[in-house]
Target: aminocyclopropanecarboxylate oxidase
Amino acid sequence: MELTFPVVDFSKLNGEERATAMEMINDACENWGFFELVNHGISHELLDTVERLTKEHYKKCMEQRFKEMVASKGLEAVQSEINDMDWESTFFLRHLPESNVSEIPDLELDYRKVMKEFAVELEKLAEQLLDLLCENLGLEPGYLKKVFYGSKGPNFGTKVSNYPPCPKPDLIKGLRAHTDAGGIILLFQDDKVSGLQLLKGEQWIDVPPMKHSVVVNLGDQLEVITNGKYKSVMHRVIAQTDGNRMSIASFYNPGSDAVIYPAPALVEKEADKSEVYPKFVFEDYMKLYAGLKFQAKEPRFEAMKTVDSTVNLGPIATV
Model:
């Protein structure tokens, strides 16, 4: 059977088709861990500018560096599968709690300005989406944002990646399979060059490139907070032999000191109360994830259960 990747028209949330759109989002969160948004309210003009400036920046500042790295490691001539690195060229921008956009070297002034503007739009969209998830889950409005808040507000940052043409895509991945550690992830990706795939059951499924869409996926923290009702899902990037794929992924994550635990309102509804996800401080999870990113998430959750007892869980900051 042909599986249809869930595409949600965000504008329908304001009309009589709201219930259908909400149900699509809920089904995607339960069964896919991913969905694609169209008519999400971020201007196409802004998206086009972000794309143009990102591609220009790669050509001007990143492409040569990537080629030199490939040459220095002899990667064009690999004969066997490479499992300890990815065929990608990336840099990171941090927006919250404090922005570092003005400190990143080599960024043109207009690119910095546009990425800051883009981040403001994405932050709003991420918070809207978290409230839609609350509504679907039967949690009070603002619950997820509050849990993510910690004492300084959420961690929000962007990974800007390019996946250049790769001579041996069967031997080296653009990005190895992993689940995302954080909260909710908003991706603006190339609309021509594909490569992103998610694991559904035993099958790798392409996330279709669509112009001006935003791909949303759920991180490990939402799986914990929903006690497994929603899932973070393994995904990977397959490098292409031709075409350079742009990927701009923005991560709306809990604050470092936020305490993450299954929402009591959801655990209460469950018949079997023995299968409960752990409670931990987000930063502790990230330390563990750093070394285990490309492995299954379940052992990470198990490991956090043993950390559990040592966590000093003071009163949770409410905002």
